[in-house]
Amino acid sequence: MAFLIDCPNCGRRNPYEFRFGGECKEAPGPDADLNTWCEYLYFNENMSGFQQEWWYHNMGCGDWVKVRRNTVTHEITED
Amino acid sequence: MITRARAVQLPSWAGKPVEAELGGWPVVTHFEAATGACGVGLTDLSHRPKAIAQAQGIDTHFALTPGRAKWDGQSLIACPKPAHAIIFDLNGAIEPQWPDSTYTDMTEGWVLLGIWGPEALGMMQRLITVDLEPRTFNEPLYVATGSHGIRVQVINLRTQSPGFIIACARSHGQNLFEACLRAGTQLNLKITGTDDFYGWLANDCK
User: Fold this and answer.
1) Is residue B73 part of a domain?
2) How far is CA B163 from the centre of its chain?
3) Which of B27, B39, B49, B206 would bridge B119 by S-S if both were Cys, CB 3.0 to 4.6 A apart?
């Protein structure tokens, strides 16, 4: 993977220091039905292009970082 | 009485260690017949008290920002992220004496190695890919990163001659120690006792 991730605590780091945490999705409310929860947990957009993702800095500060990454080119951009 | 096991096993070429008991730990103070200067000194400091402190405002209490560290004459204190601090007590009492429950004792959880001497930066650059000598500031630097697939914490003390502290989980201590030995092979690395480390610390880290 040829890109770097900006961690707010540690600075710009190699992505191998991070663990991919999946797409950023809005969690269903407490009254949501089972189908909504099932969709939230098991289904992804898998979009081609920019998407918001969670990355966990497991080798560094241990914080979750939100990253906007192009899934085709690995380009990282600001929000 | 020695009640705790040393975190790393020393190779036979290091020489015959002279050990003392400190707080139940077997501590190598020096090696018999050790002579000459070294490019890099590698010292096992795992017996020293270590802790994580987590509380709102603890970083401001220590006047630190993420990625910075400071030496207060007794401890190295580092800030990995807001509301967190890491403490490596190098000169205080051997039994951990933390002020309150915001401190989690990590003395038996982490291995702590001192890496010091004129070639220490060169050796660290073989272990760590992150810039350990940024020119944007001169204070001690804290970095949490990976080396050989192990999460390590590094403090560059920014002393007159290069000096670093590196820590990792005790379960990976032997792997990190051997990685240090390999990285220092061509840099005249010597395994030293605590006497040499504290001699260097007293001279260079005032």
Assistant:
1) yes
2) 9
3) B39
Q: What is the pTM of this model?
A: 0.92
| Token pair belonging to B17 | 């260690």
Contact state of B66 with A60 under an 8 Å Cβ cutoff: no
Distance from CA of A58 to the nearest CA of B (A): 8
The tally of domains found in chain B comes to: 1
Angle at A67 between CA A66 and CA A69, to 5 degrees: 155
Of B67, B84, B151, the CB nearest to A11: B67
The ipTM of this complex is: 0.86
- pLDDT, one tens digit per residue, over A9-57 is 999 999 999 999 999 999 999 999 999 999 999 999 999 999 999 999 9
CB A10 to CB B145 under 8 A? Answer: yes
Contacts of B169 in chain A (CB under 8 A): none
Eight-class DSSP state of A16: G
CATH number of the domain that residue B51 is part of: 3.30.1360.120
All domains in chain A, ordered by first residue: 5-77 (3.30.2270.10)
